[in-house]
Amino acid sequence: xxxxxxxxxxxxxxxxxxxxxxGLLGITDDIIVYDNGSTxxxxxxxxxxxxxxxxGKWEGFGNTKNAANQLAKYDWILSLDADETLDDELKRxxxxxxxxxxxxxxxxxxxxxxxxxxLRYGDWGNDKHIRLFNRKKVSWDREAVHEKLLLPEQAxxxxxxxxxxxxxxxxxxxxxxxxxxxxxxxxxxxxxQGKHGGRLRQIFSPSIAFIKSYLLKLxxxxxxxxxxxxxxxxxxxxRKYELFRKLKMEQEARK
Length: 255
Prior knowledge:
Elements: E1 5-10, H1 17-22, E2 31-35, H2 42-46, E3 52-55, H3 61-69, E4 76-81, E5 84-86, H4 88-95, E6 104-114, E7 117-119, E8 127-134, E9 139-140, E10 149-150, E11 156-169, H5 172-193, H6 199-216, H7 224-254
Parallel strand pairs: 1-2, 1-4, 2-3, 6-11
Antiparallel strand pairs: 4-8, 5-11, 6-7, 6-8, 9-10
Helix pairs in contact: 5-7, 6-7
């Protein structure tokens, strides 16, 4: 087996974690699930699989992922979310990677789903991310949300054929709940960064987000699912600025 570890952070993913782990078995001999206080039975499901389960506190996405990576058996880390797995082509190609140059990082295409409907356009189409790297050279930044990898200047990015299958939302209600959570985290991030969110931005940004996703990025070609995703991007943008303005007012009131 290739010498890399799969590292997953999760919380309350009982409805999907089993399906994800089923698709990852046999790829490596080291799979880590780093649970952050699940209350829905997620750890009980994970215990049925040949993986290493740890419990750790939530420190935001970036810091939590870095903490989990330190528990890995290997320096090469394939970082996945609890609702992600791999297609057969990517599994085959991963087994062929030499992983002998620690400045190399590997980028994968994503196929995102709304329920069982694949999204090929809009904000979720043509989605690519670096997810395999050597922890000696690469780490996540410290952001609580929308975390990014910190790459060395000499990093070499290699695209790998195949796809990560991202089954992130069961339905529209689940999608909305996740967008609400991300909006809250995004608002707190904006406050920490000292950004400004004026009334005009709050009013017009949601419409702009919808137009970009549905029209400019051809989300309409995904049919009803594309319309739903564009609407949720507008909702997320609206809630992020609403919550940010609220936090900003509360901060100023305390001064």
